[in-house]
Write a structure and sequence with these properties.
Helix content is about 80%, strand content about 0%. The chain has about 170 residues and is mainly alpha-helical. It has one domain (about 5-165). The termini are far apart.
Length: about 170
Amino acid sequence: MGFVRLAATAAILIAVTLWLQCGGMAVLIQMARVSLAKEIHRLNPFRSGLLVIRFTALTIALHMLQILLWASFYRWKCISSWESAFYFSAGSYSTVGYTDVLLPQVWRVLGPIESVIGVVMCGMSVSVLFAIAARLVETEEKTAGGEGTQLQRQAVAAAGDLEAVPNR
């Protein structure tokens, strides 16, 4: 097998992984916009937490699909069982990199490529989750009348009380 075939295989796997990630993130962002628009007046720390949990679970499912994509290729061309293929793929994608399951020598470069892709995809996901969390905090502050949440007001009041106590 030549380098061209290996490079083409890697390019296809990378392209499909990127397609899954970008499409999944676009859906997640749209869901966040819809959720925020519907629940903007009912947001509180508990509801915000539930939204973050829901979006995080969907992001994890998206990453599992990407791992399954690579595992499918490994099962088809490299590894004899689904369990081992998924195990190898998850280890590579997450950069854990256990070496108890190995790819055949002709395909071994795909493991490090999947690791790099996994790091980039996880970084993209974290940035979207962070943006959603930041938007939730911003929305919560706006709905509280610009004065902050009840907890923030209590913390400021407590800090003010502490400042009134003389140092000994």
